[in-house]
Amino acid sequence: MAKLRVGMIGGGGPGSFFGMVHNRAISLDASRELVAGALRTDPAAALAAAAAWGIEGYGDWQSMLAAVQSGKLCLDYVTIVTPNHAHYAPARAFLAAGIPVLCEKPMTMTVEEAEDMVAAAAPGNVPFVLAHTYTGHPMMMFAKELVRTGQIGEVRKIESWYNQGWLASDLEASGQQQAAWRTDPQRTGISNCGGDIGTHAFIAATWVSGLGVARVSARLNSFVPGRVLDDDFNVIAEMSNGATALIHATQIAIGYKNDNGFRIFGTKGSLEWHQERAEKLLVRRGEVDEVYWIGAGFSYIPASVKPYLRVPAGHHEDFFPALANLHQTMEFTLRRRRGDGTAPTPFDHPGLAEGVAGMRFVRAAVESSKARGAWTEL
Amino acid sequence: MAKLRVGMIGGGGPGSFFGMVHNRAISLDASRELVAGALRTDPAAALAAAAAWGIEGYGDWQSMLAAVQSGKLCLDYVTIVTPNHAHYAPARAFLAAGIPVLCEKPMTMTVEEAEDMVAAAAPGNVPFVLAHTYTGHPMMMFAKELVRTGQIGEVRKIESWYNQGWLASDLEASGQQQAAWRTDPQRTGISNCGGDIGTHAFIAATWVSGLGVARVSARLNSFVPGRVLDDDFNVIAEMSNGATALIHATQIAIGYKNDNGFRIFGTKGSLEWHQERAEKLLVRRGEVDEVYWIGAGFSYIPASVKPYLRVPAGHHEDFFPALANLHQTMEFTLRRRRGDGTAPTPFDHPGLAEGVAGMRFVRAAVESSKARGAWTEL
Amino acid sequence: MAKLRVGMIGGGGPGSFFGMVHNRAISLDASRELVAGALRTDPAAALAAAAAWGIEGYGDWQSMLAAVQSGKLCLDYVTIVTPNHAHYAPARAFLAAGIPVLCEKPMTMTVEEAEDMVAAAAPGNVPFVLAHTYTGHPMMMFAKELVRTGQIGEVRKIESWYNQGWLASDLEASGQQQAAWRTDPQRTGISNCGGDIGTHAFIAATWVSGLGVARVSARLNSFVPGRVLDDDFNVIAEMSNGATALIHATQIAIGYKNDNGFRIFGTKGSLEWHQERAEKLLVRRGEVDEVYWIGAGFSYIPASVKPYLRVPAGHHEDFFPALANLHQTMEFTLRRRRGDGTAPTPFDHPGLAEGVAGMRFVRAAVESSKARGAWTEL
Amino acid sequence: MAKLRVGMIGGGGPGSFFGMVHNRAISLDASRELVAGALRTDPAAALAAAAAWGIEGYGDWQSMLAAVQSGKLCLDYVTIVTPNHAHYAPARAFLAAGIPVLCEKPMTMTVEEAEDMVAAAAPGNVPFVLAHTYTGHPMMMFAKELVRTGQIGEVRKIESWYNQGWLASDLEASGQQQAAWRTDPQRTGISNCGGDIGTHAFIAATWVSGLGVARVSARLNSFVPGRVLDDDFNVIAEMSNGATALIHATQIAIGYKNDNGFRIFGTKGSLEWHQERAEKLLVRRGEVDEVYWIGAGFSYIPASVKPYLRVPAGHHEDFFPALANLHQTMEFTLRRRRGDGTAPTPFDHPGLAEGVAGMRFVRAAVESSKARGAWTEL
């Protein structure tokens, strides 16, 4: 079985971080390989970065696209790892050219861009995966299946959160690259904290529950002096079924790393999950707390999740495998399209619809906050 | 040293719960004893309940007060353990008579009642303790001291919560006594979930931080069909220093027992505490998480907290000692008033001011929720 | 219902610790009270200590016993809280006089003394409770019931342990009272660590499992220079059914407080309990971890354990209530003896037989260690 | 930079498990690739397995070695993933041919084989890494550095353990492949539980502490009827500095997955680590518990560990990256040998010496157990 050939846009050079994370996720299953990339904005630097990784380099994504279209380069899909403002143009162009895309979140800078991407993908029904890494954690997938199959009844309330502390002081002033682009409206859009990690809390609240957000009341803060965008993001949401959700995120919680998680309370039971102990799921349906662990060998793992597990029982796969699972979903999708009957059914991971919803959510939250928490429709 | 003599109002009879809890808390330190009580509404039942406990019985609180005033009964203070609607009358009367009161929360049914109690206590500066049990946990007291002494800098954001599941279904229909009075507006006031456990989250947010709540935007829900009052309570609050607080509570989180706790994020560090593991406090001021344990022998325990500890190191005192600590505060106050120089300085536990603030908080939340989350001043 | 009247031997004076702990445990349920004591070795100091507690004072236990026998003092039972070497004489004398005894552990200094106490109690079948505090934790009682009723099948292996750090350095050199008597063979016997906390691990291994220890292979260490007795205690034991147990304790584990606990592995399942999170029990019988919480209201609590719970659900009772539960067992025993049909059935808490077994265990371990781990019968 | 080319011996076919795990670990860093393999015993099946993975296939390792020696195949190193009995022959042959080897543990079937492998590697000082996966966890490496640099003083006592439950019943009777070879003396050697997971506990006790085991007293059990080899393994060890270690493992702990970990108690502090929450290290040096997290960005991570981290802060890398770190050590070693000045210093991961020590440890334990726990020199 030939490995899938993957191209990358962005993600290279010193100070970048997530490009190499995707490279590892692409490589982990030994069934995909990164073969080409337009890894940086500066063409010379882009070529140098590609050379350093030992892949075919392009000075910009346009020339990489041209190479694909001219048949000089064969790619099964591309991964977009640029800062937020640079997702839309290449994603739209590759989709329009019929080339599948796995793109970092938040999907775009605006709702309009997001909807335009949907339009671009529609004619060819081109596969698109939105890289909400944590949705690749098998126990988060298991949680979604438990809700979908009615194990906790009708959802009444959701808490989802993401606490970080790395932007509690003016890190961007030091020139730190990750801080600099996230706090810059030109590169990150209308919301920093909301777009960067509030969207994770949003996905937990919606994707796991299977519910949409109907309207929000929000309070965004910029605690660190001089910061234009929010570094703290708080939303009370009304869900599509009338449930209430508390969706909040902050970047000023000193000492907190990636404290993302959710609790979902239904009429028959409750779920609780924490990204920092991602390999367990706490289910409460009666008097006894039930703790479920990751492990392909456990009979409770649904058939839809099992193909995404790599270790039989009780070892923690965690972060890279979670991201790799999104690439697995792309791979399974592509292999099945080509008639490979051995490819598992791809899981229902976030895609274009979730990307648009996320952009609408962030926009509504920003508007509501400006209107002192007025309830704002998505 | 003679034991302090304590009277009790309410709390007796089958199906009651917290009267005996206070009895234990009164007894635990072997320096106080419950000697008299008007334990139930029905006079005959009240006398029977007192007899069962081996204490002097009164048919109603009025006759117990009369006995004190006539010199027939000597009480150092009274404890009020009635349902919410029956706090005000006896508390006011005893305070007006100059007799100290330790009263269950929420303090009253209305803000007006609460303010009237303040007025009643003022002339004699009569000691009053509001029984927010969890504030008696030494690590919660320690947390308050850490904030007060600037260990985490200026407070920016607070999360405080209380998740329970016992009212996820229509328990009151079964006649269960605890459920019945809490869901009945006549006995519990304008808010069930907010008054009963939202006030715990409120106290965590305000008492520990030393901040007040300026205004709130709230969403209250009644999830269980047929219920008039809220069983779910969500508030975004603006604190007196401009900080933001998320204060929420629910009674429909199936399988959650007493998941109360807080996180406080300051400019220099963070605190995290959970009632269900009350004997530890998590402090984050840099890269390393610091975990503090209860224990009188630890040098980090402040002098203000040390007199409240009973065990030198590493054993958990937990629930009854926490409540006993509120009685300790009453005892220390009374002993010092009488010139006992060996009595420790009483800790700054919640009292009348916190009771009034709690009532204002609940009222504002109820109003805001009716006004679809409009920001409402306290 | 009149309160039971309790006397205390030892436990008073500055620097003592557990006397007041027992006083609290006696008081907690408001059904017993400490009324008399011979609290210290020096008669004048003993009288002063009793006066400070507001109880009737005796200069020595002999005169307190005489007062009981002459009818001047009425006691339902006595509690012995002296250092190890001073358990035997008063315990034996009170038992011989037909007065029930609740005695601290380890029961005596030697096996012979322990056996003599059994003989003294036999004629009148005088109630005796050995104060293994942790056996009063309801979840440890629950664990014993799960084993007894076959929920985890036949026991194959046990781990039980107790890690402390407070004697990691030469604390006794500072004159610290607790360290001084524990490291002194005259007052503590042939083993410090084994007798003081190894016996807790022994009780966990035997009392919970319902098994005896047949023979041991041991290695005891004295890590701190100058120390005569062990501060580290390690045993491999063969149980009465052929199971293997690892029973170990140490006092040199810096930073560990009271890390006592056990794991029991049977043919059908496993149990795990930790004293430092005493209110939960982890049960594993299949793929899903089951977590049980303390709480009188939970239907899984056996009828034999239920009378020992004080709070309906999800609040932690913890340390003082655990010790109070041993006093409850004494109280239930006495009340039933007197024909009180409302008194619950006393739980099968450690008594004389467990005390003798504990002394045999420590003796065998000391001998085995001297013989370089030779297997030694109990 | 060209990727290192890796060959694999064993690990293919249905029912195998760890071959694919190594394949992922080889691929994860995108700097190595699996290019060839003799993946199964049956030559035809071996070729088919290689084809399924898309690598160059060989019918047996001898022909793969011949291909390397004749220059037809270029390999930087080989990974051996066969059952225990099939480690020695290929490992010895490749080492003798000067080809580096990364080999699964336990290293061989006998001490003699292990020593012979040392002899084979000696002439060319051929690199060898023993695949003790857990030593690749950065927090375990950090622990080793803390001990080495004296942060916890002189080591006094060690606990290390590994509890599993998957062999609590007669799984091998079902033909399950993993159970079948581990319980078969022909394929697994003189010890099942000791060799398979006791060696993990051994490595934790020795490699982290920097100490050797001098002598052991052991008790091995075969709990499941019909089993020839041990499924339970208990050792009290005397370390090279006189410290005592409890080293134990079991396969009959129902519901336990991979509960491996250690506690190390020194004269200045203590360390605690659990494989099932591998990304944190608990350090106790005073009153406050210190919790350290994985994360390249934390200043406490030693320079020797930093090159092994892939994510800046607070995401969990866990299992595959841990194994990949052993491949990193091989890669760093090889690159530096070739003069690549950018390659980091390889960490001191287990190699031939640890492999020999592990075999001596298991042999001594088996002998001691047969001699009823007689102290046996390594």
Quick structural overview:
The structure is a homotetramer of 378-residue chains. Chain A is an alpha/beta fold and 378 residues long.
Describe this structure in words.
- The structure is a homotetramer of 378-residue chains.
- The first copy, chain A, has 378 residues and is an alpha/beta fold.
- Chain A folds into 2 domains: 4-134 and 346-351, NAD(P)-binding Rossmann-like Domain (Rossmann fold, 3-Layer(aba) Sandwich), CATH 3.40.50.720; 136-311 and 356-370, Dihydrodipicolinate Reductase, domain 2, CATH 3.30.360.10.
- Chain A is 33% helix and 22% strand.
- Chain A has 11 helices and 15 strands.
- Chain A has helices spanning 18-27, 43-53, 61-69, 88-96, 111-121, 138-148, 177-182, 185-188, 193-207, 319-337, 352-370, and strands at 4-9, 32-38, 56-57, 77-80, 101-103, 128-130, 155-163, 213-221, 232-239, 244-250, 259-266, 270-274, 280-284, 289-293, 376-377.
- In chain A, the strands form 2 sheets. The first copy, chain A, has a 9-stranded mixed beta sheet with strand order 14-13-12-11-7-10-9-8-15. A 6-stranded parallel beta sheet of chain A has the order 3-2-1-4-5-6, with helices on both faces.
- In chain A, a hairpin with a 5-residue loop joins strand 12 (270-274) and strand 13 (280-284).
- The longest helix of chain A has 19 residues, at 319-337.
- The radius of gyration of chain A is 20 Å and the shape is globular.
- At the A-D interface, helix 1 and helix 10 of A face helix 1 and helix 10 of D.
- Strand 14 of chain B pairs antiparallel with strand 14 (289-293) of chain D.
